[in-house]
UniProtKB/TrEMBL annotation:
Protein name from the UniProt record: Serine/threonine-protein phosphatase 2A 56 kDa regulatory subunit
Signal peptide: none
The UniProt record lists the keyword ATP-binding: no
BP GO terms, sorted: meiotic sister chromatid cohesion, centromeric; negative regulation of mitotic cell cycle phase transition; nuclear chromosome segregation; signal transduction
Record bears the keyword Phosphoprotein: yes
InterPro entries named among the record's database cross-references: ARM-like (IPR011989), ARM-type_fold (IPR016024), PP2A_B56 (IPR002554)
Region (Disordered): 11-65, 570-599
Pfam family, one: B56
Subcellular location: Cytoplasm; Nucleus
Species for this entry: Aspergillus kawachii (White koji mold)
Composition skew (Basic and acidic residues), residue ranges: 570-587
Amino acid sequence: MYPGQYYIPQGAGLVGQPVNNGGPGTPTKQGQQMAPSVVISPSAPHVPPPGAAETMPGDLAPPRKSHVFDRLQTTPKDMSEGIRTPKRQHSSRFDISDQRQRELEKLQGFHEVPPNRRQELFMQKIDQCNIIFDFNDPTADMKSKEIKRLALHELLDYIANNRSVITEPMYPRVVEMFAKNLFRPIPPPVTPQGEAFDPEEDEPVLEVAWPHIQVVYEFFLRFIESQDFNTNIAKQYIDHHFVLQGRPTNAPQLLELFDSEDPRERDFLKTTLHRIYGKFLNLRSYIRRSINNVFFQFTYETERFNGIAELLEILGSIINGFALPLKEEHKLFLTRVLLPLHKVKSLSMYHPQLAYCIVQFLEKDSSLTEDVRPHPVPASSRLEDVVLGLLRYWPKTNSTKEVMYLNEVEDIFEVMDPAEFAKVQVPLFQQLAKSVASPHFQVAERALYFWNNEYFCNLVSDNVEIILPIMFPPLYENSKGHWNSMVYNAMKMFMEINPQLFDECSHEYNERQNSAEEREMGRQQRWEKVLERAKDRKNGVAVPPQCQVAEIPVHLDDIDQVAHDSQKRLHALKLDDSSSTERRPRESTASSVSTERPE
């Protein structure tokens, strides 16, 4: 499945069937089914799941007195006694209902009542689904939890398998039930050692209330995708507050749930938000701006948000549907929102989705030819902005990120017009030459793989007069000792395209190397003279005037350009001083007369 394509999770509407999505950016295992809901008898021992807070040392029983020898054995060497590490929040903080409300009784099925009573039964089942249970204690309210789960599945089947059953009073009740079960504060991720959660290394914490949360998402998706769903009625309840900001107390809403660690929930959220974007035209601009704000906060403030990949998947589909010509808002989104996302440390968590969005924008731009637009292409195109933006954020020391950048550049080459390529070829190949000469083998190998791309080779052959002088030094130096045979293939291609230019570059390279050796020898000799003269002065030996370092000829090429410019500025200042001194005597004499004391 490619980014930008979404669908309702398989199995939505089937009782007891798990959901298994394979969308990009969602680490679900193919072919692995979720464990079905199991009713545990009160006598069965409680075995907490791996990673739960109950399995941590010191949490299984109340603190008890111990001898000094026992404390020495149980206390780690690098931790002082009495300091407990903070526990990791093993689930979201739900607003648990009262004990009296949690005692549910099973209601009749929809097939057991006449049609005129089904709407009333629907509302009663919605009321049962508004009860929130504590899943941190598996032995609590087991019967009522199962009743609620069955009620959710019955509501799902009722909407999915019947026509003309959605009435206007159902809309506020369904939206309220969705918010009651899902909108909650997401705890900050903290590892058991008190360190910040690393999404690349640490295992995500799964929601213990998933048996209910999953069916709520499935039911809501079936509800808004039903043929009987009326957007004009629903937009009174699914509005700006539903997407981002809660009405009564600024409670976390739909967009903020993307920070959940559970990848299963983020996958359902991705589908839900995309369906809302497609159904509610009045919310599209607001949803895009809200996602932009999430990206801004992630890039410039926190650098931590779990749902960046899923939000980029949604944007990939949105960008694909942009109308032509692109609005100024969309162009700014590319340069000010998407490109800065490259500099975040956790780029590997969402880079495939980000690269897809960038390429989608460039494909839109390349379709705007002169036949479509009456005016010519501007001097600074979006492709030029993207390439220069990537070069601006190009990693200096992170080889893993550099490989990802090279992958993205090759994707950009696929949608690059030859005329646009000519604008960026010099800075782009200057960076590519550095990557070919990189001491990290993966970076150098990935850069050399560009010559296996047929379209890339065609662009290079058309502009070989500019590219070969840039690429010849790193390719020639690597050809003498590099283990990868692709270096020889690249050199051979340049030799076949323009043999005369290749010979000229080779001759120029050899001359430059020889002159560099001569300059290095001259520099070394001058330093030896300086050291010898300093040693003589230290020993009190008089240095003859003719013994100067300038005996050795100094070429202009050896002088540093910065020092040469500074010397020219000093000469200019001397000229200014000499001209100003001619105008000063009157002022100086006047001042001297005024300050002279009488004898």
